[in-house]
Amino acid sequence: MGESAVRVLVGYDGSLASGAAIEECARLLPAAHALVAHLWTPPFASEQLRRRLWKGTRQVDAFVDAVEREGQREADRIAGMGVALAQTAGWTAEPMTVRCYGGEGLELTELARKIDVDLLLLGSRGLGGARAVLGSVSDMAVHYATQPVLVAPYPLLAADDDALAHGPVLMAWDGSAGAKTALDAAGRLWPQRQIILTSVDHHVDPPTSPGDPQMTTLQVNSRHEGSPPAVADTLAAAARDHTAAVVVVGSRGRSAVREIMLGSVAMSMLHRAHRLVMVVPGHHTADVTQPDS
User: Fold this and answer.
1) Cβ-count burial of 141 within 10 angstroms (0-12 exposed, 13-18 middle, 19+ buried)?
2) What is the pLDDT of residues 184-216, one digit of tens each?
3) Pfam family of this protein, just one (predicted)?
4) What domains does the chain contain, in order, with CATH numbers?
């Protein structure tokens, strides 16, 4: 893609979390172009709007037509709000409304694949436990994505927010092909930032020719060697200690539901890092360069 703007697909639902995600990512990628997508899902209009329409029609066919018409108008308005937020944050932006019937995480990953964006951005409300695992759009999107997915937790603390503009990139490093793919993606998006290659429990040699004078290495130990939550906690602590703007992890791209439930380092990071996390699928090969401000 050369020096053209990074293209970011934003999953926007009108919530504070999705709005904050736009503001935060704009500080990480200040010269991006956003496609702000609002998914229009059943029952295709808010409860208040449906009640008003039903009282005004009392006929099923007329009610359905009215819900379609007014629901689309409502969806367009929400997407437009996201565009306004993106433009205020310094991005160029355009709205998208997509009608779908559930499975928002899957729908967003398919949309990202079709329009071939460089990054999928999602906000997370920071749910914990089984409710988060079973109900999180961001978890499902990360699991099925073919493009890198950046998940922004809500809310960020002031210190974490301050790190976004100039903080380093903390890279989970195990020497695997997936980690190398993630490192390549991080280097393309943030070529001017320091990248901290961080290995947990075992020393892992960095790339033989990293080609980046700002690349450094770090080796840390977890409390329970081999446990994904423990590894995630250790990486999160390292990110906090080094005031990292974002944590980058590779993913093997498995799609089995069992893998979602049991977790991995990548999935554990989403729930335990409390800062922006980018998960890069192992087969990602997009070419994009992001100018740093």
Assistant:
1) buried
2) 999 999 999 999 999 987 778 888 655 555 788
3) Usp
4) 7-281 (3.40.50.12370)
